[in-house]
Design brief:
Elements (H helix, E strand, L loop, with lengths): L1 E5 L17 H13 L3 E6 L19 H7 L2 H8 L2 E2 L10 E4 L13 H12 L4 E4 L22 E2 L4 H7 L9 H7 L3 E2 L9 E4 L2 E4 L5 H12 L1
Parallel strand pairs: 1-2, 1-4, 2-3, 4-5, 5-9, 6-7
Antiparallel strand pairs: 8-9
Helix pairs in contact: 1-2, 1-7
């Protein structure tokens, strides 16, 4: 079982002067769900190397069992520090692709041609594609074989407008995930703010927020079992 996890390389939070990146819980929880199931995990990012961790996700209040496990796992930290360049990754040989969120993907992965190439390759060959929280942003320019947006007519979720408002970043982000998914024709649904909520439509799995990370990864595994 080979799973490709794709992380952002973007670390600037708009023009605020603050840093962003990927959300630590949204990487750590799926990483260990996959690892504990015996999966062979490949990590990639647009620039390769160490992807930026959102500093807010590294604050004490945002730690979970998975993030604490990661911080004590030297092998996992080295794995993360040496992600492959996305342009060098071929979809062949992988069983599923999964995107952790954080605000970074809104700027780079949402517009990344290599990311789009990979997602379209997985989707066209009916292999699982997963994304959690802000990571459904990666579907912004992805099309199905028909030429229609990949999410059109499909049940999807992602970070809600109200969660973004609570984070105080509605006017900072380049677009709102909820609005974009609706604009692309997605059948968007949501749970309570900050509670786990995951949707599966065929081989497409989306999670609403950080709390949804482990459940989304388990849905990917269910598709591979």
């Amino acid at each position: 079982m080979k799973i490709l996890m794709v992380l952002t390389s973007h670390d600037e939070l708009g023009d605020t002067g603050k840093k962003t990146g990927f959300w630590l819980e949204e990487f750590a929880a799926p990483y260990y769900v996959f690892k504990d199931a015996g999966a062979d995990i490949t990590l990639a990012s647009p620039k390769g190397g160490q992807p930026p961790i959102d500093p807010t996700s590294d604050e004490p209040d945002n730690q979970t069992e998975a993030t604490e496990r990661f911080k004590g796992d030297e092998e996992a930290k080295q794995h993360l520090a040496t992600t492959e360049r996305l342009a060098d990754v071929d979809a062949t040989g992988f069983d599923a692709i999964f995107y952790p969120g954080g605000h970074g993907p809104l700027w780079d992965l949402a517009e990344d041609a290599d990311s789009r190439r990979l997602i379209e390759a997985f989707a066209s060959s009916d292999r699982p594609v997963g994304a959690v929280c802000h990571a459904p942003a990666v579907f912004r320019n992805v099309t199905a074989a028909s030429g229609a947006p990949l999410v059109k007519g499909r049940k999807v979720t992602g970070f809600t407008n109200s969660e973004e408002e609570a984070a105080g970043l509605t006017d900072v982000v380049p677009f709102l995930v909820e609005d974009m998914l609706k604009e692309k024709g997605g059948d968007y649904a949501r749970g309570d703010d900050w509670a786990s909520f995951v949707l599966r439509d065929g081989k497409l799995v989306t999670g609403q927020n950080p709390a949804s990370s482990a459940e989304a990864a388990r849905e990917i595994l269910a598709l591979l079992s």
